[in-house]
Amino acid sequence: MDFGPSRTTVEIPPFNEWRVETPKSSSMSLKLESGNAEIFGTELSPNITYIFKDSLKFAVSTFQGCTLSYTASSPPDSEYISEETILKQVLNLHLAIENFSQNGKAPRILIVGPKDAGKTTLARTLASYALKTSEKLPLLVNIDTRLPHFAISSQLTAAKVYDLLDVETFTFGESSTTGPGTGIYRSQIPIVKNFGLENFTENLELYKCLISELSAEVDLKVSASPSDSGTVIVDTPPLNVSDWKLIQHIVDSFQVNLLLVVGNERLLVDLRKKLTLSSDNFKMIKIPRSSGCVDKEPKYERDLQQRSIKQYFYGVERAQLNPYTFHGSIKDFIFIRPNEQENEMAFLDFMAGDAEDDADDNYTPALVENDEDYDPSSEATKKPVRPATKRSWKYHKMFKLVKEPKETDLMNVVLAIIDSKDVDFGKMLSNKIADDEKLIYLSKHVTSKSVLGYCYVSGCDDGTGKLKLLIPSPVTSLPGQILVITQMRYHE
C-alpha cells in the first residue's frame, strides 16, 4: 500500500530512537529494511509493512542499529533520531526483574510517577520483554481511567498478555470485540471494572473499591493457572506524594513487591518514608524520564478516547465489525450513574475516611519529615507492618439511581452492561424497597462484577420511552439489564 510518491529511508544507530508524531487524518506506511528494531518492546518484522493511522506519538528503538523506510500521506509533525534514550536502563531493569523472579514467585510491579513521564510505555515494554524471555505470561493491569487500554476510557482493566502487543494501535491491545476471532491474536478477554468517570479523583471511594475488587479477580486469575502466570505489572494515573495513601492502598491490594518511580526522585524519597510495607522483600527503584516523552494535549487524549470507542463498535482495519442496532424500552432496564464529587471535597473525605480506618486498626505510621533524616537501617524510621483489614465501603456514595432517564441523560452516551442474572429485577423496580436500599444493593453488585460489554445510545424518545442502541454483535436481548451511564460520549 503506497501513501506517497516516494519512500524515505531512515538509518538508526545502535541504542538510538527514531521519534515520530503523525498528524490527524494521516497514514504512514513503515517497513524494517535491515537490522533489528522495536516499538515499545515489540519487535518489528522485516516481512510486515506496518500502517499507522491518524494522530500518533511513538518511537522506534534499536539495540544493534537498523534501517527503516516509510511513506506518509502527510509529512510527520515531528520526526528525529535521538541518542538520549533510556534503553540501557530499561534493559537492565528487565534483567533485574528476571533475577527477582527466580527467587520465588513472580514479582508484582507498580509503576508510579507524574503525568506524561512514560509510565505506560515502561509498562508495555516490560510486558513485551517478559513475554519474549519467560515461559510465563505477564499480566497487565491499567488503573488509569483516562486511558482506553483493553476497553474504552473510564475503566479499570487487567489482561494476560498471550501474544506480542500490536504496535499499530495506541493502547495496550485491542478491545474484546476486535482481538478474539481475528485469526491473528489469541483470544484474551480482559477483566473490566466500570468506573465510568474520566478522572479518578471524582469518586475516590468507588475508585478504591474497584481497585480492591480488580486485585481480587487478578489473584483468582493467577491462582487458576499458576504454571503460566508471570509478572503482574500495574500502570497508574499521574500520582504524587499527596496521593500516598492511595498508593498504599494499591500496594496492599495487589501485593506489590517492586515499586518503580518514573521521573520523580523526590516522590521516591517521600514514598520510602510514608509507605508501610508488609514484607521485607520489597524494593523501590527510580527510573529516569525518557527525553522522548511529550506532553499530551487534552485534545489528543479526547481523540484517543473517541477512536477507542469507534474501534470497539466498528473494529480495526484488518478486523472490521458491522455493529447492530438494538431496539428496547427504557422500562426494561435499571439505570445508574457514578456519583460525581467535587475533587477537593472528595479528597478531603477520602483522607478523613482513611484516618478513621487507621484509628480503627490501631495503626499509626511512623513518618519522617526531612529527607536528610531518613535512614532505612534506623529503628526510628522502621515502620510497623500494616495489619490486613477489610474496609467497609461507603456504597451509598458510589452511584446514583436514575429512575426515569430522559433523552438528555442518555443521548450519545456509552453504557456499560452489567450481568444481572442474580438480581431480583422485579424487586428493584418495585416501590416496596427504599431507593437508598436499592442503591446500596446495586452498588455492591456492580462493583463486584466485570463489565459484559458496552452499548451506545444512538436514539432515545421521551414520548414513547424507546431506546435505540448500537451494539457490536447481533443479540435478541442485552446480556444484562443493569446499565451504567458513563461519562463517555460518542458522536458518529
Automatic annotation (TrEMBL):
Domain Clp1 P-loop, first and last residues per copy: 113-315
Region (Disordered): 361-386
Clp1 N-terminal domain: residues covered: 11-100
GO cellular component, one term: nucleus
TM spans (from-to): none
Biological processes, Gene Ontology terms: mRNA 3'-end processing; tRNA splicing, via endonucleolytic cleavage and ligation
One Pfam family it belongs to: CLP1_N
This protein's UniProt keywords: ATP-binding, Nucleotide-binding
GO MF, one example: polynucleotide 5'-hydroxyl-kinase activity
All copies of domain Clp1 C-terminal, residue ranges: 394-492
PANTHER family the UniProt entry points to: CLEAVAGE/POLYADENYLATION FACTOR IA SUBUNIT CLP1P, POLYRIBONUCLEOTIDE 5'-HYDROXYL-KINASE CLP1
Name under which the protein is recorded: Polynucleotide 5'-hydroxyl-kinase GRC3
Native source organism of the sequence: Pichia membranifaciens NRRL Y-2026
Lineage per the UniProt record: Eukaryota, Fungi, Dikarya, Ascomycota, Saccharomycotina
